[in-house]
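Selenoprotein S structure dump, as promised
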Amino acid sequence: MEDVEITDVDEGRPQVEKPPLKNQDLGSLSLFVGDLLSQYGWHLLVVTVLVYVLIQYLSKRRSSQSRPTSPPQTQQDAALVARRQEAMEAARRKMQEELDAKAAVFREKQKQQEEEKRRQKIEVWESMQQGKSYKGTAKLSQTTEEASSSTTVMKPKTDKKSLRSADYNPLSGEGGGSCSWRPGRRGPSSGG
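structure tokens r here:
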């Protein structure tokens, strides 16, 4: 193997010199940018969008802060506010007067009910002193008391017939029904 001689193929040919690149710096820069974009393109896109949104948000916030929050009040605004407050105060007074009137009516009704109860108790006591039946007057006083104190309308009870007789027991197996429980077949079911 020592006999082998290696010769360059281009040795005999004249070399054609290539002109140097005009912008070697831009060539390496374009290679670097291409490599960077191929590796981190999506990351750079997301960061760019986030920076854009942040700039828009900050510019809107700065513009809203630079505006005055409320213009200086004029005499008309002050008069308008005073009129609104007076109207609200008048409405409150009116509502309070209505509430007071309703409370007075309620108190009057309560006094009447208490007076009625007191009168009934006196009647019951007098009837007991005279030897009359206590139960009849007690029932009468209870029904009038319930009717006066209750605000809901009492519905009279209607006598309904029971759908089954009182001695019906569904577990006994007896009864007028045609259905009765039967145990299932034992063992594997056969299709035949």
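The two ends are 94 Å apart (CA to CA).
lmk if u need the other ones
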